[in-house]
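Worked example 2:
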Amino acid sequence: MPGTDGEAAGAMPAAPGPSRRQIRERRLRRRSNLIAASSTAVAVAAIVTLVPLAPGWERVKKSFFNAEIFAETFPGLLKAFLLDVAIFAWCAPMIAVLGLVIALARDARSPALYPLRLFGMLYNDIFRGVPVILVIYLIGFGVPGLGLPRPWNSPYIWGTVAVVLTYSAYVAEVYRTGIESIHESQRAAAQSLGLSHWHVMRDVILPQAIRRVIPANMNLLIALQKDVALLSFIGPVEILRQAGVYKSLLANFTPYLGAAVIFLCVTVPATRYVDHLIAKANRARS
């Protein structure tokens, strides 16, 4: 038939099918997913079946899993959580900036700037070595004890200072790790072009370092969101303090469960997003 040879010559080759290795890997993935789902179902069924058989389950259920109290207190807890969000919102930028300043101080290489390097080392050693709750107590109660006038005796101010000082030390170490991960040849190449140390850091090192440490800093932000609740020990009525108020009024621990649910609704999606960023960075490097 006319045109048959031309059509055959111009036809696109058929796409190759999956290789044996790909087929085997798919089968292994399906098998692994099936085993994981089965083991999870068995574990959940065991918990659901065995826990209610414990002698004190009815008392625990009444004290921690009271549906009526949960529904009654949840709106108030959610409203109190807005204070946690506000404290987090004004702490996070200050931590990012102060952490970067401390990291740059630790990276100072000129002998004349050694006092800055020493300050950065001492700062990180002190505030990473002392638990955050102790820093909150020492600053939150100690500074207002000096008899400062309002508003400088506010627990919001000094609680924020305590959280910022502590978390800046951790963020500084993350920044420093990112800075040191940039190969020394890039710094040498930039300096050979006549760039000063400051321009090398600003234009060459920091843009790469900050991108590399975004997942690690996101993990610290998740931890910060939870540790903001520790400020309740020095006065602010945020979600943890509000849950304690409800517990005292109702003689029931269910409000603490409600607070935990609210935190999980925030931290679990954020954690999954961090995992996505880490996986994306690993794929980019491979």
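The chain is about 80% helix and 0% strand. The chain has a mean pLDDT of 87.
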